[in-house]
From TrEMBL:
Residue spans crossing the bilayer: 193-218
Protein name stated in the entry: Ig-like domain-containing protein
Region of interest (Disordered), residue spans: 224-261
Organismal lineage: Eukaryota, Metazoa, Chordata, Craniata, Vertebrata
InterPro entries the UniProt entry points to: Ig-like_dom, Ig-like_dom_sf, Ig-like_fold
Domain of life according to the entry: Eukaryota
Organism: Danionella cerebrum
Domain Ig-like intervals: 101-181
Keywords linked to the UniProt accession: Membrane, Transmembrane, Transmembrane helix
Length: 261
């Protein structure tokens, strides 16, 4: 990882006065450090890329590379003369520092949840893998070879699930969680509650309307019955008055027959 230190071991616990070794770098085997007659030295004509970055262990001859960068990746060759001559090659890979992925919303719709939500996960680094995960399942992944790259995530239905963007290389990984409340603010999930509330309100309104209608019907029925009762009473009273009139009328007296002459 960039910025770290790397130690290349000779495999020797302690060099003797007769032992010698040479450290070389790259395909051209440019000498970057050596031990000769117990003297440890780093050539003054060393390549600029290694300036103030190399350290030799005075006992074992092991080589340390500090504050390593991508330009220090490559083959390091050790030639050791300790009785018999031996050669070792160390292949050093350097991974760039991983920045934390950045999540942004990229669609131009309203920031409130409609029918979908789209976000981008971006990194400003190359030679990494960029992925979207839902829980522990990878749902999309791409190998990034450019310095800056983004990978989209399109959500058709706002599931209350854990989404995360992961950037990784051979050495490590970094993760950024997707905050749905921030990037896809929800009216999704609320509609279900709203529907229940609206349905309950509608049911309550219907019940109230039914109760009002029932009361009106009952009042109308009572009023009808009252009118009918009044009409019957009035008819009976009229009948009684009529009978009384007939009773009070005197009977017509019959005139006597004229006398027979």
């Amino acid at each position: 990882m960039e910025g770290d230190s790397v130690l290349l071991h000779t495999g020797v616990s302690e060099l003797t006065k007769r032992d010698g070794l040479t450290w070389a770098f790259g395909a051209n085997h440019s000498v970057i450090a050596q031990v000769s007659t117990s003297l440890l030295s780093i050539p003054r004509a060393i390549e600029e890329r290694f300036w103030n970055r190399l350290k030799l262990d005075h006992k074992s001859g092991s080589l340390s590379i500090t504050n390593i960068r991508a330009e220090h990746a490559g083959d390091y060759t050790l030639k050791l003369s300790a009785g018999a001559q031996s050669t070792k090659t160390f292949k050093v890979s350097v991974c760039a520092q991983l920045p934390l992925p950045v999540i942004t919303r990229y669609n131009s719709q309203s920031r409130s949840w409609s029918s979908s939500c789209s976000v981008l996960c971006s990194v400003n680094v190359s030679a990494v893998t960029l992925s979207w995960y839902q829980g522990n399942t990878s749902i999309s992944s791409i190998r990034v070879s450019e310095l800056s790259y983004s990978i989209p995530l399109h959500l058709e239905d706002r599931e209350e699930s854990l989404y995360r963007c992961v950037v990784e290389n051979a050495a490590r990984s970094r993760t950024k969680l997707l905050d749905l409340n921030q990037f896809c603010p929800s009216d999704h999930g609320v509609p279900q509650i709203s529907i229940i509330i609206l349905s309950s309100a509608a049911a309550g309104s219907l019940l109230m309307a039914a109760a009002v209608l029932c009361c009106i019907c009952m009042k109308c029925r009572k009023a009808g019955q009252k009118r009918k009762s009044l009409s019957s009473s009035e008819a009976r009273r009229k009948k009684k008055r009529k009978e009384k009139v007939y009773v009070n009328i005197p009977k017509k007296q019959r005139r006597p027959d004229p006398p027979n002459l």
